[in-house]
Design brief:
Layout lengths: L5 H8 L3 H14 L1 H11 L1 H8 L14 E6 L3 H11 L4 E6 L1 H7 L22 H19 L4 E6 L8 H10 L3 E4 L9 H12 L7 E4 L2 H10 L7 E3 L6 H4 L11 E5 L9 H17 L6 E5 L3 H10 L8 E4 L4 H5 L2 E5 L4 H5 L6 E3 L20 H4 L8 H11 L11 H10 L8 H13 L6
Helix pairs in contact: 1-2, 2-3, 3-4, 4-6, 4-7, 5-19, 7-8, 9-10, 12-17
Length: 446
C-alpha cells in the first residue's frame, strides 16, 4: 500500500480484517515513538520484515516479471501510466516513506540529506550504512517470498533514502535502476548540479538511469554519475495520460488555475504572494458564478502554507488542491498561470491562455527562467505580465463570459518537445519498459 493513501486503507480495513492487522503492524514504522521503541527492542531486521507489509502488488499477473518501484510524489504519476501501458511487467509499489522512516533510527542526521550525504560517507559511518543495507535486504527477501523481483526502481539517483536500497540490491544481485522523476528545464541549475556532484565525487557506475529529456542526460553524464550509455532518454510516462488515452469528450473550460511556485526553489516567492492575492481578488470579483479558481499545490504541506498566505476571507469559488490530476485540471482551464514549474510546461498540452508573471523577483536573467520571455517561440504561446496590474487585467478578461481560450496547436506541441522528449510510435511508458528489459535481460519469469 502507499504511504499517502493510508486514510483510504483505514476505511477499507473495516471490511478486511487481514488488512487491518497489516495497518496495525505498520504503525511500528509510521509513528516515530513506536518506531524508536520497536527498533530498540527488536532491531533493524525486524523493521525490514514489517516494511514488507507495505508493498502494493495490485493487479499482479502470474508468469509476468515483477519490478518493485520505490514511489514518491512525482514518480507516482509515472507509475500510474506504467501500470496502464507497460504490461510486460508487474509494477509493484512501496512508498519510499516506509523505507526511509525506519532508517532515521540509526542513520546520523548528516546522512539524511539529499546528495550531500555522500560527503559524509566516512569509515565511521560504514556500520550505519551496513545496517541500512541489512534492513532493506530483509525487506526485499520478504517481498521475494511472494514476488520474485527482476529489478528495483528508484525515483532519483542521489536520494539518501535509496542508498540502502541500492546497497541491498547489489548484495542480492537484483538490478537497481532509476527513473529520474525530476527533469532539468532551468539552465541555471545545470552547471550548479555538475559542480556539486563532481565536488562530492558522487557516482553510481552500476546503476542505469532513465531520464525525461536530453538536458537531464547531458548534466548527469557531464557530472560523471555513470557512463553515457547507461543514461537513456525515454520521455515521461506521466504525459502518456495526454498522448495515449482515449479521446475524451470535449469539456467546458470553466476553471482559472494558479500553479504553485511558493517555494523559494522556484526563485520567485515574493511574486507568488502578489499573484496569489491578485488571483483571490479576481475570484471575489468574478461576474460568472459558474467559474472556479483553483490553486494547484505541490503537496498537502504546500497547500497549508499557501492558504496561510491569504489572510483575508477566501471566496467560495477558490479551492486549494494538491491531489487533482493535472490532465483533468488543465484540460478544463481557460487560464493557467505559473513560474518555473514543470506543470507550466505540461500546460502547453491544454487549451488555456498561458501566463508567466515577470515582475518583482520573477523578473530574472534568462538562464534562471524556464519560460524565456525573450524567446520568440515562448512569446507565441505565453503572455508575460510585467506588473500585478497587468496580471489582474488578464484574470478579469478570462472571467468574461465571451472569453475563448487560445486552444491546442501544433506550435504548442513543438515548444513542449523542446523541454521533454516525446517518443515516436510508442509511449514513454513502453520506452521505460524497454529500458528495464535492456538492463535486466529478457526471459525472466515472475
Amino acid at each position: 500500500m502507499q504511504f499517502k493513501r493510508l486514510p483510504y486503507y483505514v476505511l477499507k480495513a473495516a471490511r478486511e480484517p487481514g488488512l487491518a492487522l497489516r495497518l496495525l503492524a505498520l504503525q511500528l514504522i509510521l509513528l516515530k515513538p513506536l518506531a524508536r521503541l520497536t527498533y530498540a527492542l527488536f532491531g533493524h531486521r525486524f523493521l525490514g520484515r514489517i516494511a514488507a507489509l507495505a508493498v502494493d502488488a495490485t493487479g499482479t499477473r502470474q508468469g509476468v516479471p515483477n519490478v518493485l518501484c520505490s514511489s514518491r510524489l512525482l514518480f507516482d504519476k509515472d507509475i500510474v501510466q506504467l501500470r496502464r501501458l507497460a504490461t510486460q511487467f508487474n509494477w509493484l509499489v512501496v512508498d519510499s516513506g516506509y523505507l526511509s522512516l525506519p532508517q532515521e533510527q540509526w542513520l546520523p542526521p548528516e546522512l539524511c540529506i539529499q546528495r550531500s550525504y555522500v560527503a559524509h560517507r566516512q569509515p565511521r559511518h560504514l556500520a550505519a550504512w551496513d545496517k541500512s543495507a541489512e534492513f532493506v535486504e530483509v525487506f526485499l527477501e520478504r517481498v521475494q517470498t511472494r514476488h520474485r523481483l527482476s529489478a528495483v526502481i528508484g525515483s532519483n539517483f542521489d536520494y539518501w533514502q535509496e542508498e540502502g536500497l541500492r546497497l541491498a540490491c547489489r548484495r542480492l544481485g537484483i538490478p537497481f535502476l532509476v527513473v529520474c522523476q525530476e527533469h532539468l528545464t532551468i539552465p541555471y541549475y545545470g552547471p550548479i548540479n555538475i559542480e556539486e556532484i563532481r565536488s562530492l565525487g558522487f557516482s553510481v557506475p552500476d546503476t542505469a538511469i532513465a531520464v525525461f529529456g536530453q538536458s537531464t542526460k547531458d548534466y548527469i553524464a557531464k557530472a560523471g554519475v555513470c557512463a553515457d550509455e547507461r543514461i537513456v532518454v525515454t520521455g515521461a510516462p506521466r504525459f502518456d495520460a495526454w498522448f495515449n488515452a482515449k479521446q475524451p469528450a470535449p469539456v467546458e473550460c470553466d476553471t482559472l488555475t494558479l500553479l504553485s511556485y511558493a517555494d523559494p526553489s522556484y526563485l520567485a516567492p515574493g511574486n507568488f504572494i502578489e499573484a496569489l492575492h491578485a488571483f483571490c481578488d479576481a475570484a471575489a470579483a468574478c461576474p460568472d458564478p459558474g467559474l472556479r479558481f483553483v490553486v494547484k499545490c505541490k503537496s498537502p504541506d504546500d497547500r497549508d502554507t499557501i492558504r496561510a498566505m491569504v489572510e483575508r476571507k477566501i471566496s467560495a469559488n477558490v479551492t486549494f488542491q494538491s491531489d487533482i490530476p493535472l490532465p483533468e485540471l488543465l484540460s478544463r482551464s481557460r487560464l493557467v498561470a505559473g513560474f518555473n514549474s514543470l506543470a507550466q510546461i505540461e500546460a502547453l498540452l491544454s487549451p488555456a491562455l498561458l501566463v508567466c508573471p515577470q515582475w518583482g523577483d520573477a523578473d530574472r536573467p534568462e538562464a534562471e527562467m524556464q519560460i524565456n520571455p525573450n524567446d520568440p517561440r515562448c512569446q507565441s504561446h505565453f503572455v508575460f505580465p510585467r506588473s500585478a496590474t497587468e496580471f489582474d487585467e488578464l484574470l478579469r478578461k478570462a472571467c468574461q463570459r465571451d472569453f475563448t481560450p487560445p486552444g491546442i496547436s501544433e506550435g504548442r506541441m513543438e515548444l513542449f518537445q523542446l523541454y521533454f522528449h516525446v517518443p515516436t510510435g510508442t509511449s514513454a511508458s513502453e520506452a521505460i519498459q524497454d529500458f528495464v528489459h535492456h538492463f535486466i535481460g529478457q526471459g525472466e519469469s515472475a
